[in-house]
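Box S2. Input/output pair 1.
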Amino acid sequence: MATFVRLLVVDDYEPIRRFVCSTLGKRPDLQVIGEASDGLEAVQKAEALQPDLIVLDIGLPTLNGIEAARRIRKLSPKSKILFMSQETSDYVVQEAFSLGAMGYVVKEHAHTELLAAVETVCQGRKFVSRRLAGHILTDTTAAQAHEGQTT
């Protein structure tokens, strides 16, 4: 296993960023190397830092998370993207995965799902929040999501 998973945390709401950083900071193999509060800053930091994983909100100022992810894919192609958002519409979730996101956590479940999601995504598998798994995504993605829940 790699010594560290280097993370970039992107959310415009500072208490959420603090929560994510402190939750991930409990694991010795996870290292938060940067934070951003808007989509443009996320793109710039992703390009500069080349993190292993980006925890990315969708509702961001300047550039929303979907558009930020589109640009990040080009500038930091090895970075895995895990969306963490309160957005639960079918269209947005499908769009997130079509951009190559590896995971999607609904914010209201982050306290119970964030670490499992990060672990699953770091292993190269998809993770979908339990709230979404049954009714939104394709059968294979939903099956992988349930598989992620057991990890």
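Box S3. Input/output pair 2.
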Amino acid sequence: MTKPPYKTPTVDRALAATVKESKAPAISRAAAALRLLGKSDVPLGLQAIARELGLVPSTCLYVLRALVVEELVSFDADTKRYALEAGILTLARQWLRRNQFPDLAQPVLDRIAETFGVTVLGVQIVGLDHIIAVAVSRSGATIQLSTQVGSRFPALISATGRCIAAFGDYPEAELEARFRTLRWDEPPTFETWKRQVAETKAQGFGVDESSYISGVTVVAAPVWKGGGNPSHALVAIGISSALKPGNVAALGEALQSRARELSGNLTGA
């Protein structure tokens, strides 16, 4: 049985807002269209894409035609629907060649997943905007919590967000503004969340027990590629009833230890 560890963000609001507020609308529209098609399990028609992105259909058609020419999007003349094209792999391949983290993290994720019976992610942190799953490992447990490489989530959500706030240099006012936009199953107050952020900084890893998703525990530890704010994080996700309190602490310590080693490998220390 497979369940998603992170809830899918509301695509139309998030992408449409990005396009509307951008100072480079042409680029934002193209990127939003690619993200939307990447999230969809099926090809989409012009009207559906335009509606999700908050675009006039004629404008949306112009963007899609340009992406088809660049071989980043395909168009099926029979169904009149669009999907990602293989050209997107060229861009992904170049990123994978220069980014060490997924290769270095994968064996670490595999060991932790097997030892603790959880799903483990390696995520890249993009400031306070979002995190992106760049490596995934799943245990052999009957009930699995899974996500896909490339999935994006709000930066400050769950245990990872507590790590970003605890170890990053961000003004409290900005953290609070971002916090107010997050969606939780059992939302903490900002004051409670701040106390949890302080605990995260003290112990070196963050824990979210059922706040983000009811019945799910998320544990995360920060990774640094250089100085400044964390660049990545290791994130473990499991069913709360299957994780005893002692196991949560042991899991957090294992993540913290492996994250420290990864940081050394990434920085050459």
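Caption for Box S3: The CA atoms of residues 207 and 219 lie 5 Å apart. The longest strand covers residues 119-126.
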